[in-house]
């Protein structure tokens, strides 16, 4: 009997992990559960965060 895995994914999914798992004999049941999109409040939020960093209140890390 094949091993099965519920594979939660988003709209920007690469095939690297699915290929590795599939080659190991694991059957994936993919479920699209999230999507990436821009935020209309990002420019204001970033400006606010930078002001707080300059005031010594925060440490900000941006990642993609």
Automatic annotation (TrEMBL):
InterPro entries: 4pyrrol_syn_uPrphyn_synt_sf (IPR036108). It comes from the Eukaryota. GO terms for molecular function: uroporphyrinogen-III synthase activity. One of its GO terms (biological process) is tetrapyrrole biosynthetic process. This is Uncharacterized protein. The lineage of its organism: Eukaryota, Fungi, Dikarya, Basidiomycota, Agaricomycotina.
């Amino acid at each position: 009997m094949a091993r099965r895995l519920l594979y939660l994914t988003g709209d920007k999914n690469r095939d690297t992990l699915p290929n590795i798992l599939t080659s190991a004999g694991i059957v994936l049941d993919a479920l699209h559960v999230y999507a990436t999109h821009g935020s209309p409040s990002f420019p204001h939020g970033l400006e606010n965060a930078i002001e707080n960093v300059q005031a010594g209140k925060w440490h900000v890390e941006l990642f993609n």
